[in-house]
Specification:
single chain; 373 residues; alpha/beta; 3-stranded antiparallel β-sheet; 9 helices; binds iron/sulfur cluster
Length: 373
């Protein structure tokens, strides 16, 4: 019987040439993520989905681990076409191993025997046609870490751009100069999960903080629309000093970058910490505002965080977008992307009008263009 690893091994293409480099002792260095693994013949990188055979780096191709239609607010992007539908696909595997992962079925499929997620054969044309059929405005690579499957995402994004759709990554931000350079011509939106501001915490999750901070700075310089999320986990990353440093860092890149601080619910293997309370989110949001961030949101507790689900003009405080969870209740941003009261430009990617909301909760698109192995 084929294992999941066997199935995935058959679904590969050769890596993008700029993401590989032959190094000493016949190894190949991969630059798709911040690990920059030196991979010997016959072995795989930390992510377990990129591997070397006969001197070549093979990378995931031709499948998805799952597809779902999400409100763009779920990604979350709050400053990019509010109300739009985000056609969201994932592959399998991740370069970190966060015990609280909310996408563990796809991200940990090759590490955790309980995480069973059969791959579905797919093509860029079929995925994009499906996205168009459902009136999606954005195609998003998410659910697993998209950087480690960048080649496949770029193939889909090229097709999506040709069809007039926007594109995005929902990512842990463990990038490199090379991979950001590779994706930049094809990507509009990028969400980075900034999990902590402590390198020790990142090492517990299997990473380092420096590549994530690099990615945030670089994406901003490259002009990709960037929003940052921190899942607030009591006892892990909610120390006041850590939150001060984390939010000051974001503000130092730009006070216009939206920061979402979201509530942890006991999940996967991390059942020790208590759930995040609305008060904890509000305290973190206050720290962020004091650090200078202009657009601060609290998530995962709809209706429980006061005004922190809404967008207000940072200049005059006029209510611009009112939300309840992922639901848009009102929208008043002017057609030129400014505040209707004081004409201050509001950072983001806005349409000339609000086109309504196709769905305020996720739904499955159906599987008629996809088949399982
Ligand atoms: S994507 Fe990252 S973890 Fe995977 S092989 Fe490349 S450098 Fe290593």
């Amino acid at each position: 019987m084929s294992t999941l690893a066997d199935l995935l091994e058959a679904r590969t293409a050769e890596a993008e040439p700029t993401l590989v480099e032959p190094i000493e002792r016949g190894r190949i260095r991969c630059y798709a993520c911040g690990h920059e693994c030196p991979i010997p013949e016959g072995a795989a990188g930390v992510c377990k989905v990129r591997f070397v055979r006969e001197g070549r780096l093979h990378v995931p191709w031709g499948y998805v681990g799952g597809v779902q239609c999400d409100p763009i607010e779920k990604k979350p992007f709050f400053h990019a076409h509010p109300g739009a539908l985000a056609y969201s696909f994932g592959m399998l595997g991740c370069d970190l191993h966060c015990s609280y992962c909310q996408n563990w079925v796809t991200s940990q499929a090759l590490r955790d025997p309980q995480a069973i997620s059969p791959p579905l054969t797919a093509s860029p044309a079929a995925l994009v046609a499906d996205a168009k059929r459902l009136d999606a405005r954005v195609v998003v690579s998410t659910y697993n870490e998209p950087l480690i499957t960048s080649e496949w995402a770029v193939a889909i994004f090229k097709e999506a751009r040709r069809a007039g759709l926007m594109t995005g990554f929902v990512s842990n931000g463990n990038g490199t100069e090379r991979v950001l350079h590779f994706i930049r011509p094809h990507i509009d939106l990028y969400k980075v999960d900034l999990k902590s501001f402590d390198d020790k915490h990142y090492r517990q999750l299997g990473g380092r903080i420096e590549p994530i901070l690099f990615t945030i700075r670089r994406l901003y310089e490259l002009g990709v629309w960037l929003e940052i999320v921190t899942l607030l986990i009591p006892g892990f990353n909610n120390g006041i000093d850590e939150l001060k440093r984390l939010t000051a860092f974001i503000a130092s890149v730009s006070p216009d970058i939206p920061w979402h601080v979201t509530a942890f619910h006991k999940d996967y293997r991390m059942s020790d910490p208590e759930n995040t309370t609305p008060e904890m989110l509000m305290e973190a949001a206050e720290i962020a505002k004091q650090a200078g961030l202009r657009y601060v949101y609290a998530g995962n507790i709809p209706g429980g965080v006061g005004d922190l689900e809404n967008t207000r003009c940072h200049q005059c405080s006029t209510l611009l977008i009112e939300r309840y969870g992922y639901l848009i209740r009102s929208y008043t941003i002017a057609p030129d992307g400014t505040c209707p009261a004081c004409a201050t430009p509001i950072p983001g990617r806005w349409g000339t009008q609000f086109d309504g909301q196709i769905a305020s909760s996720p739904f499955l698109p159906g599987t008629r263009r996809l088949r399982t192995f």
